[in-house]
């Protein structure tokens, strides 16, 4: 009893210290954060795409049911998504605003605080997402918008951009399309994954060319464990030991080390490039294995909290009450509670699931 009390007191004291440190410093760990990728980190860009279909938007209930004022902002989550939660670890309120929401005249001033370019449905290949969404803000367009905004800022910004954090979470939608639309009969998994890595490398070089130096890159998670993919893989031969689509998960498992070696090579070639690669496969597996983590006890791993079966999440779909115990919010996306665990790992993990350093260490580097 006494020792548990002691532990609580210690935790409380640490929290107060952390508050004091933040309060006194009042400075986030980096001047700005720039976010790229897909629906795991989109905070509303797709709301501004006229031809993007409703299933690729999240601007209606029950999305945002746990967000301030229960606002459906375009986040594919019940609350804050991974970009928000990583931003919060860095000392920001939440993710920077969606690029497509910004009037032209505000872009230059917003660049000094950060911008989110991510678009649900997009992937590493620019054509990814069009079948499902009709329109996405593809990765090349995201990167190009960033580089042209940097150019508009003119000289004197190199320091700001090089100290800022580039946060990228993409690639899952390419894997979904590859497994869901098996139209290309001559395909070769390795060649397909190599094409994704080559595309990733091109985008990173373009961002580096614009002055970015600190990259937090998240590998695609075990996409075969999404409720959508579990539903597709019926045959037990198609299932792995987590009960997920073996083929889809196989792609994620194969891709992670390929991204790792691409990043190692790039950092060796490009002076002062630094990165943190998050191993989403390992992090997902930790949770799927039933590991109880501090403040996170996920007991429902295979069903979404909102909707389910063939139906998506919408205002009339069934909604779970105990959202902290669900891994999935809808058929494709984690709950805010699960994103929080991932953000915490990306930021603080001492080396099990982030290489060669965590995002906290990356942010503190002075290039
Ligand atoms: C990517 O986006 C740009 C800008 O919207 C567009 O011009 C281009 O056609 C897109 N690429 C593909 C392959 O869809
Ligand atoms: C920025 O600086 C570079 C070299 O220092 C120079 O070549 C370039 O013209 C400058 N650009 C602007 C917009 O001032
Ligand atoms: C089919 O896959 C091969 C090998 O991955 C690739 O080179 C080719 O472009 C693909 N064709 C189509 C139509 O997607
Ligand atoms: C797939 O492509 C890789 C890389 O090009 C090659 O080494 C391998 O032999 C190919 N596999 C098949 C089954 O064609
Ligand atoms: C999850 O469990 C499997 C099977 O026991 C094991 O091989 C794997 O290493 C575990 N992964 C994590 C991250 O706990
Ligand atoms: C996790 O939740 C389950 C179901 O509510 C409960 O039985 C279990 O005791 C919890 N484990 C921990 C460590 O809190
Ligand atoms: C709303 O979601 C439910 C459950 O997922 C589904 O059955 C229904 O068709 C959806 N309604 C609309 C208008 O999409």
From TrEMBL:
Single Gene Ontology MF annotation: hydrolase activity, acting on ester bonds
Keyword tRNA-binding: no
InterPro entries assigned to the protein according to its UniProt record, in alphabetical order: GDSL, GDSL_Est/Lipase, SGNH_hydro_sf, SGNH_plant_lipase-like
Keyword hit for Signal: yes
Keywords associated with the record: Hydrolase, Lipid degradation, Lipid metabolism, Signal
Domain of life: Eukaryota
Segment forming the signal sequence: 1-25
BP GO annotations: lipid catabolic process
CDD domains hit by this protein: SGNH_plant_lipase_like
Pfam families in the record: Lipase_GDSL (PF00657)
PANTHER family, A to Z: GDSL ESTERASE_LIPASE, GDSL LIPASE/ACYLHYDROLASE FAMILY PROTEIN (AFU_ORTHOLOGUE AFUA_4G14700)
Family: Belongs to the 'GDSL' lipolytic enzyme family.
Identification of the protein by name: GDSL esterase/lipase
Source organism: Oryza nivara
